[in-house]
Specification:
Length: about 110
């Protein structure tokens, strides 16, 4: 009777140790992933800061509506807009696109 009880306790202890090992492994993987995501977040924040600076330099602190229109023009057919933005062919709807090219701004990049 005592031997059976001791055996059951030993088995329960082994199972608890295995469960603790699994949880420890999961926790270490989660911590590593959290550290990786934190590094990615810091990198993305820096890219956002850089792109915001480029945008402010290109459009001179334009208001929100003008900035949204510039982004829409860039998506429609380049930073200049022109015919794609509803203007006459060759017409320019915003600041010169060459300035954005100098900055290397991704808004003027056509794929």
């Amino acid at each position: 009777m005592c031997l059976e009880r001791c055996e059951r306790v030993r088995v329960q202890v082994e199972e608890a140790e295995l469960a603790a090992a699994v949880q420890t492994r999961r926790a270490s993987h989660a911590e590593a992933e959290a550290a990786q995501l934190k590094a990615q977040l810091a990198e993305s924040a820096q890219q956002l800061k850089d792109l915001s600076w480029q945008f402010n330099m290109a459009f001179g602190g334009a208001s929100g509506a003008v900035a949204a229109a510039a982004i829409a023009n860039a998506k429609a057919g380049g930073a200049g807009g022109g015919a794609a933005a509803g203007g006459a062919p060759g017409a320019r709807a915003g600041p010169p696109g060459g300035f954005l090219d100098i900055l290397g701004c991704g808004a003027n990049f056509k794929r």
